[in-house]
Write a structure and sequence with these properties.
Elements (H helix, E strand, L loop, with lengths): L1 H12 L2 H20 L20 H43 L5 E5 L6 H7 L4 H8 L16 E7 L2 E8 L4 E8 L2 E8 L3 E10 L4 H7 L4 H10 L15 E11 L2 E15 L2 E9 L5 E4 L19 E4 L19 E4 L5 E3 L4 E8 L5 E6 L4 E11 L8 E2 L4 E5 L9 E8 L2 E3 L17 H33 L1
Antiparallel strand pairs: 1-2, 2-3, 3-4, 4-5, 6-7, 7-8, 8-9, 9-10, 11-12, 12-19, 13-18, 14-15, 14-17, 15-16, 16-18, 16-19, 19-20
Helix pairs in contact: 2-3, 6-7
């Protein structure tokens, strides 16, 4: 009987959770002392350090005290949180009793809708539409409503009190009714920019590697565009080429809304590393430069077709595939599907756009410094491309075809300097203007910072990979 009373006393003195914790810790101590290896059997690794077994018992005793203290702390926190929740609920109830209740309904713009159609579905009439259009402030956005957009109505006593037109994820037009009518104001949510880093090694294609590295297709295309003057992505890419990129993304309420700009990038092609730094000049234009301040933008693109395959190289003694005679092949053939866009490799003027014998449909551009480019076998010309018109570098001037003497759809591209034909793949391209002397110091500081960040991010990735391999061993 006395033993039973002592047991009841112990049970009443120590809470059940404390007794449970002590029991668990005692069991852990027994298992540890039974199963842990002796010091001679303990494995060691270069990166990961193992604790000596002799410290196991004190550590478990300390852990027991820590667990009990943590449970006490959690209990106190839970009690405090419960009290705060009750206070918050009471405050919300009091606030809702004071604030006027809003009666919002949402209408989605359908195909063919006008503002009147949407208002009618919300139970409003033509006068309500006119009152909104007469609001003080800019309400021109209502003239350009599109399917899928939403209008939110606050209607009380059969009358419109407020209206919100959701223009985009970050912008909305809000109207509120006051004594002198509706007042309109644009509400804008600021996007939060985040800087991200990605790297990858090319095994099959740049797009596949970019996707595995977390880059969108548009970001991968932008990466290719930056290095398009130095790397021919149809000819030069090799297995094992790699890239590193620091770029910006914009978030709203924790969700990515849109891609930003590439801030710095490196592309290693056949062992040669090209580095590009984004810099906004004093006149507000943003361009990419090498770390030395030379423009990444050359006067000419290396290739007029994105990611096409070179099917025939420049060869002045080639046997013609159709005529079967020795005839100079004065350009480079890019094999691509019919309809693939063809881009002007440099700014220039169209001096010819039409049919030209075996070339089929042809565009010839005249550029500065006595340079001329020819684009043959086109399926068709782009809109507004005609003799006398001007085009910009990268502008689509036509589409791949097989007109003229061609065995299949491809682009025949020729490059002339002062009337003499040159190999488009190897000709040295003129350089664009470098960074202005007045901005060189500021740019150099930025370039140094971005190169340091590229190196730091890459080293961090390598360290994480080493640690991951070590853990998996």
């Amino acid at each position: 009987m006395a033993e039973l009373n002592r047991a009841q006393t112990v049970t009443q003195t120590y809470p059940r959770k404390h007794l449970l914790a002590a029991a668990l810790c005692s069991a852990a101590m027994v298992v540890a002392l039974t199963l842990l290896p002796s010091p001679d059997a303990t494995a060691t690794k270069t990166i990961r350090l193992d604790s000596p077994v002799v410290s196991a018992v004190p550590t478990l005793l300390e852990a027991t005290r820590d667990i009990m203290a943590e449970m006490e702390e959690k209990s106190a926190i839970q009690e405090q949180q419960a009290a705060e929740d009750l206070a918050t609920e009471a405050a919300d109830s009091a606030l809702s009793a004071v604030e006027p209740q809003e009666f919002w309904q949402t209408q989605t713009v359908r195909s063919g809708d006008t503002l009147s159609h949407v208002f009618k579905r919300a139970g409003l009439n033509g006068q309500d539409v006119q009152d909104v259009l007469d609001a003080k402030g800019d309400v021109s956005a209502f003239k350009k409503i599109h399917p899928g957009q939403q209008l939110r109505f606050d209607i009380r006593d059969a009358g419109l009190t407020a209206l919100e037109y959701v223009i985009s994820r970050t912008e909305s037009l809000k109207l509120e009714k006051k004594e002198d009518g509706f007042h309109a104001s644009v509400q804008t949510q600021e996007l939060v920019p985040y800087t991200s880093y990605a790297e990858g090694s090319i095994k099959s294609s740049l797009f596949v590697s970019g996707r595995k590295a977390g880059l969108s297709n548009s970001m991968t295309m932008e990466l290719a565009n930056i290095f398009a003057w130095d790397v021919d992505f149809a000819l030069d890419i090799r297995n094992g080429d790699s890239f590193k990129v620091i770029y910006r993304q914009f978030y709203l309420n924790g969700e990515k809304v849109k891609e930003g700009e590439i801030l710095a990038a490196q592309f290693t092609n056949q062992g040669k590393t090209h580095t590009a730094i984004r810099y906004e000049t004093d006149d507000g234009n943003a361009e990419y430069y090498t770390p030395n301040g030379e423009s990444m933008h050359k006067a000419f693109l290396r290739s007029p077709v994105d990611f096409a395959r070179i099917s025939s190289h420049f060869n002045l003694a080639r046997k013609h595939p159709v005529l079967h005679t020795i005839r100079a092949h004065k350009g480079t053939d890019y094999a691509a599907s019919r309809g693939t866009p063809i881009k002007a490799t440099g700014d220039g003027k169209v001096v010819f756009a039409g049919w030209k014998g075996g070339y089929g449909r042809v565009v010839i551009l005249q550029h500065a410094q006595g340079i001329q480019t020819l684009y043959g076998h086109m399926n068709g010309f782009a809109r507004n491309v005609r003799a006398g018109s001007r085009v910009n570098q990268g502008q689509v001037i036509g589409y791949v075809g097989n007109t003229g003497l061609a065995t299949g759809p491809h682009l025949h591209y020729e490059f002339y300097v002062n009337g003499s034909v040159r190999n488009p793949v190897t000709v040295k391209l003129p350089q664009a203007n470098p960074i202005a002397a007045a901005e060189k110091a500021e740019f150099s500081a930025l370039a140094s910072q971005m190169q340091s960040q590229l190196a730091t991010y890459a080293a961090t990735i390598r360290s994480e990979n080493v640690a991951r391999v070590d853990v998996n061993e």
